[in-house]
Specification:
This protein is α/β, with parallel strands linked by helices. It contains ten helices and 13 strands. The strands form three sheets. It has a five-stranded antiparallel beta sheet with strand order 2-1-4-5-6. Strands 7-11-12-3-13 form a five-stranded parallel beta sheet, sandwiched between helices.
């Protein structure tokens, strides 16, 4: 169980020096657009592995005309206290993110922190998830997997590295057959691992959402499906490897690879009748919140993981159905919430255990 007690920001985004004490349950940041509400959520997300909810370049996190940013926080993990520092540092002309746990940045300390922290994220652009690009939808599913498997990004990054390496080999005048064969064998193995994890996540979500609909009056029956032109459930590493070999000429001409999990998409069927892309913006938000609620159940009740929820500008298109789903999350789980919106009154439907923060320039 994780609780974030406070955070101190120095030269981070628009904040020169900002300290905030957090409530153990619900924290709501309100204020004008551009005041820095999202920046606070981003700073919290940077405590975990990676580059935060906006996947920003580290240089963009540093306040203008300053050299580095500094984030400091106190965490409770399973009732023990830990001081965590995250800051930027220029090393060999590259800005890198450094994380210390109780003044220790050993691999063991970082592995402990990363295995303890789990985030579930809602961003405003998710309201049009089914009108956005396949890349964005893939990233949405991948973040859900990462929330329960903190090694997943290593798998994704290893896949991308091998894909890039294969592209470089194909662009050479003379191809080293042994080299590209090894790369394609590894690509097929990692690619199938990604397919498997995504399929497991989609099947798990479908089951959880079906169970939720049996006990709640949610507006849709939804069913998630993987969409991939080349993937088949019985795809073997050998067949995958053969497909890569046969696509070399095409991939040399157009770059990348025309097959693999980096080409996948997923779609959502609504009430066994139509695709989620036909829904309004508010209805798409309902689907996204239902999926996040299902993942909450999965993490808390099945995985024994207490995620931190970071919901940015959550109050737009917050109709009766969406308020109910959000309240179900708040009332059913002993987890910590960080929400943002432009006005305090937008959150009047949340009645208890709330700490408000007026964020101003």
């Amino acid at each position: 169980m994780v609780k974030i007690n406070n955070i101190s920001l120095i030269n981070f985004r628009n904040f020169e020096n900002k300290e905030i004490l957090f409530d153990k349950k619900i924290n709501i940041f309100f204020g004008d657009n551009g005041s820095g509400k999202t920046n606070i959520l981003e700073s919290i997300s940077l405590l975990s592995k990676g580059r935060g909810i906006r996947n920003s370049n580290l240089s963009n996190l540093i306040k203008q005309n300053k050299e580095n940013f500094f984030i400091k926080t106190s965490l409770e993990i399973n009732n023990d206290s830990y001081n965590v520092e995250v800051y930027s540092k220029k090393i060999d002309n590259k800005i890198k993110k450094i994380t210390n746990v109780n003044d220790d940045h050993s691999r063991e300390s970082l592995n402990f922190l990363n295995s303890s922290l789990s985030n579930l994220i809602f961003l405003p652009e998710m309201e049009r998830l089914f009108h956005s690009s396949p890349t964005y939808r893939r990233n949405f599913i991948d973040r859900l997997i990462f929330s329960e498997n903190n090694e997943y990004n290593k798998i994704i990054n290893k896949y991308k590295k091998n894909l890039l390496e294969r592209t470089k080999i194909l662009q050479q005048n003379e191809i080293d057959s042994n080299w590209i064969n090894r790369i394609e064998i590894e690509l097929s193995q990692i690619g199938l691992q990604i397919y498997k994890l995504r399929n497991l996540k989609i099947n798990s979500l479908n089951s959880l959402i079906s169970n939720l609909n049996k006990t709640n009056n949610y507006p849709f029956d939804i069913n998630l499906n993987l969409k991939d032109e080349f993937y088949e459930p019985d795809l073997t590493p050998e067949k995958y490897n053969s497909l890569l070999y046969n696509s070399r000429d095409y991939d040399k001409k157009f770059g990348g690879s025309k097959i693999g999990p980096h080409k996948s998409d997923f779609f959502v069927n609504i009430n066994n009748e139509y695709d989620a892309s036909q829904l309004s913006t508010g209805q798409q938000k309902t689907v996204v919140l239902m999926v996040i609620l299902a993942q909450c159940h999965n993490l808390v009740n099945l995985k024994e993981i207490k995620p931190v929820l970071l919901f940015d500008e959550i109050c737009s298109h917050l109709d009766t159905h969406n308020r109910k789903i959000l309240l179900d999350m708040i009332n059913n789980f002993d987890i910590q919430f960080f929400l943002t919106g432009t006005e305090r009154t937008l959150f009047s439907f949340i009645s208890t255990n709330v700490q408000f923060y007026n964020i101003t320039n």
